[in-house]
């Protein structure tokens, strides 16, 4: 389709997201916008320029249908993938607060999963304003609510909530690390490492702990006190998922860096032997390198 026609088509679709159109039309249109973004990256710009970001954020308002919320979040994810202008637009339109609102109790598991996923994606990379906005909008408490002990959130929701908490701590965001730690987030993430979890859940939780504890003495202590070191060492056992094992190595490194108490705990918990096991043939090179570096720094 010629550029002029593609621009007009994008504008026409964005118009169908306006209030007054049926939920079915809005849901189908948002799904179409997601597909257009995947087919051609130029469509991202056309949709954004037509006001698509604001229109999609508008669909996240309380009271909307779950299907509309889900497709709108998927479309926003597609628009923001690698597009800083769309990411900025989401922030300017109040999209962070809208996503946090969809993490509240009473929403469907599908809405919770997509809201946590979209929030995590927006808070990644260099998007420090989004990370600060998420904290200021109550995102920490909302995400931790999905990890509550005895809660009904399925594994897929907890996986995305844990990942989002880790994204909030990128680039050494001390304010977010403080907020999550003080709200009980370190213990909540350690609890996700218990036997019986999925590989993705372990990867998300260990990755979040790595980000929470790097150069943060209080969170390092919290992780040790919650049993996090033993749990991370257990993830290094042969047969575990490669991504989870790698995340566990990084988390252990960030836990002991600058902490004599945590170094001693790793040594006493069988950490050296577990790390040495990752030097065996067949272990991915990146994990093997991380394990060797950690052993060297531990003085083993």
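-> sequence recovered:
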């Amino acid at each position: 389709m010629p550029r002029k026609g593609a621009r007009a088509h994008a504008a026409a679709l964005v118009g169908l997201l306006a209030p007054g159109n049926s939920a079915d039309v809005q849901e189908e249109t948002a799904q179409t916008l997601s597909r257009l973004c995947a087919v051609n990256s130029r469509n991202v710009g056309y949709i954004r320029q037509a006001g698509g970001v604001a229109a999609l954020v508008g669909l996240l308002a309380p009271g909307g249908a779950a299907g509309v919320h889900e497709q709108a979040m998927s479309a926003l994810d597609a628009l923001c993938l690698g597009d800083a202008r769309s990411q900025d637009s989401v922030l300017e339109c109040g999209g962070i607060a809208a996503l946090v609102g969809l993490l509240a109790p009473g929403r469907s598991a599908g809405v919770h999963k997509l809201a946590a996923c979209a929030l995590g994606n927006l808070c990644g990379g260099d998007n420090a304003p989004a990370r600060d906005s998420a904290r200021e909008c109550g995102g920490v408490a909302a995400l931790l609510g999905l990890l509550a002990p005895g809660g009904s959130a399925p594994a897929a929701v907890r996986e995305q909530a844990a990942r989002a908490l880790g994204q909030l701590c990128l680039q050494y965001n001390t304010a977010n690390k403080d907020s999550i730690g003080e709200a009980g987030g370190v213990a909540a993430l350690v609890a996700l490492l218990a036997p019986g979890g999925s590989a993705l859940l372990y990867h998300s939780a260990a990755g979040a702990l790595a980000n929470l504890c790097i150069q943060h003495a209080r969170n390092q202590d919290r992780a040790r006190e919650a049993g996090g070191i033993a749990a991370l060492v257990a993830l290094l056992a042969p047969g575990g998922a490669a991504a989870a094992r790698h995340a566990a190595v990084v988390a252990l490194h960030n836990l002991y860096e600058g902490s004599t108490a945590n170094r001693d705990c790793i040594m006493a918990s069988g950490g050296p032997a577990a790390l040495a096991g990752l030097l065996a043939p067949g272990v991915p090179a990146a994990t093997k390198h991380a394990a060797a570096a950690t052993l060297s720094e531990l003085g083993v």
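The chain has a mean pLDDT of 96.
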